[in-house]
Amino acid sequence: MKIKQIGATVVVAAASVLLLAACGSTKDSDSGSSSKGNLATNQTVNWMESSQLPSMDSSKATDQISFNMMNNTNEGLYRLGKDNKVEAGMATKTATSKNGKTWTFTLRKGAKWSNGAEVTANDFVYGWRRTVNPKTAGQYSYIYSGIKNADAIVDGKKAVNSLGVKADGKYKLVVTLEKNIPYFKLLMGFVPFFPQNQQFVEKEGKTYGTKASAVLYNGPYTLKGWTGTNDSWSLVKNNKYWDKKNVTLKKLNDQVVADSNTALNQFQSGKLDAATLTGQQVKNMLSNKSMKVRPMARLAYLEFNQKDKKVGKAFQNKKIRQAISYALQRKQMVKNVLADGSIAAPGFVTKDLAKNPKTGADFTKDADSDGVGISYDKAKAQKLMKEGLKEVGLKKLTFTLMADNTPQEKNAAEYIQSQIQKVLPQVKVENLNLPYKTRLQRSAAGNFQAVITLWGADYSDPSTDLNIMTKDNPQNNGSWTNKAFNNYMDKANDASADQTQQRWDNMVKAEKELMKDQGVVPLFQTSQPQMMNSKVKGIIYNTAGTPFNFKNMYVAK
Fold first, then answer.
1. Which of 254, 231, 204 lies closest to 73 in space, CA to CA?
2. How far is CA 152 from the centre of its chain?
3. Which residue from 158, 230, 459, 554 has the highest number of Cβ atoms inside 10 Å of its Cβ?
4. Is a pLDDT exceeding 70 seen at residue 4?
5. Whole-Å CA distances, 116 to 41, 217, 299, 361, 381
């Protein structure tokens, strides 16, 4: 996810494969409520976000805040519970063919949208087709790759209605794959695969997903008070939700608090039940019982726009990209600048996301290339920059570095600016900090020269990171391309998709190629330092470490 801002619930890829390996017919049990003990009378939680909510359109959203709001107001075939366990959502039963390429989902009868309309198989067919339709311009359309004809549809080569999904009556959804997808069942709980009510979407037109009243809900909560540009909104228990008896929390008041000092003050005064901290605050509060520092499968990295009219030619030069990377002291940045529990980037794929299915080794260990792509080396940086500038016919390089205007990204951008100019005197960096929503829009449009991008894992497999750097991927905003990298990922996604070890080895090779070519510059793997009211229970964190599932949340006495 583009943060795409974020966990103690990182599940290894091997576990995911085991979870999905069984064929035939399986039944997913309804998620009953666990013993919650003594409940507070007032089941209301006051929450915060660091930025505004960008979108509630599941075909177009790419960021963590939007995804979290949709995870709690809408529901796909499944919900992902604790430790990424697949739980019943709109589907009550799943049958797979022997070759694993045909999936038949039996839908829940009587599940309702918030307007009273029934949720049917046609809602999934319409929503999926809308997401892959090139006219929608959804950046997550690539994640449909492997479903019959999805790639050709996204490329404009086949009709949208040829997508491998069809309704067999009101309550059966049949999906046809072109190849085995090891993590397919996990995807069925992911926002881009949520259903959409065609009549409602077409009635709203361009306003769909831009304000609370222009969204239809089939999940545990409904969204209230969001105008599309305001700084506060609420999640309110959805009394038309099929499992409403197991939803205890009645209301979650959400507000934008951009300044972490304000957030801490509001937490300490009882105005917030959760507060995200930064920098020195984290050190100061580590001994506090309310303080939790959760590691995240979320990476901050530099993207260079290789198509920019002014500096694109320079960023196409590998030596220039490598020089910028070698100029950065990542350990110094996370220790002295961020100081929030983040760690120096281990590579492009984050640490503890996935383990070798044969040896159990972490992906970052298998893909390690003696620090290539993530090391500090002043002499190498200066040598490579001198050679790179000569190759592109420049004596100096000036570029603008775009980043969010949150404290973490501001601090990171200032450090990067200072460090590059200190090590590479021929280079001048001009910082541009923008609101989160604006930065996302400009990144997606390619309207930048260099940008600090944040990406959180969508599922517990290296492909969730590596696929976004493939040629023409909508998330590859800098337009980097590398033939060897693309070949390795093509093999991982196709030829070796059902050969676990070969697939793993191809992804390891792809990661090494990405780092050697410095397609992007990994900076740091983030953490989430959060003060949490001890009475607030039942939050479920996803693979990236985001508190994304509030269905089981409650307030204890």
1. 254
2. 24
3. 459
4. no
5. 29, 10, 41, 50, 62
Task: Tell me which residue has tokens 């409904």.
Answer: 222
Q: Return the CA Rg of the chain.
A: 23
Integer Cα distance of 545 and 278 in angstroms: 16
Three-state DSSP at 302 gives strand
pLDDT digits (tens, 9 = 90+) for 424-480: 999 999 999 999 889 999 999 999 999 999 998 888 889 999 999 999 898 999 999
* C-alpha span between 70 and 190 (Å, rounded): 10
The amino acid present at 37, given as its one-letter code, is: G
Whether the CA torsion 496, 502, 508, 510 is positive or negative: it is negative
Give CA–CA dist 112/119, Å, rounded: 5
Average pLDDT, the chain: 91
How remote is the C-alpha of 207 from its chain's centroid? 24
Q: Alpha-carbon distance 213 to 223, whole Å?
A: 8
Q: How far, CA to CA in Å, does 367 sit from each of 186, 348, 458?
A: 25, 10, 20
Length of the chain, please?
Answer: 557
CA 497, chain centre distance (Å): 22
Stated pTM of the model? 0.79
Distances (CA, A) of 263 to 92, 313, 388: 41, 43, 45
In whole angstroms, what is the distance from residue 226 CA to residue 215 CA?
A: 11
Q: How far is CA 515 from CA 138, 320, 483, 484, in A?
A: 28, 14, 14, 12
Tokens of 382: 């200066």
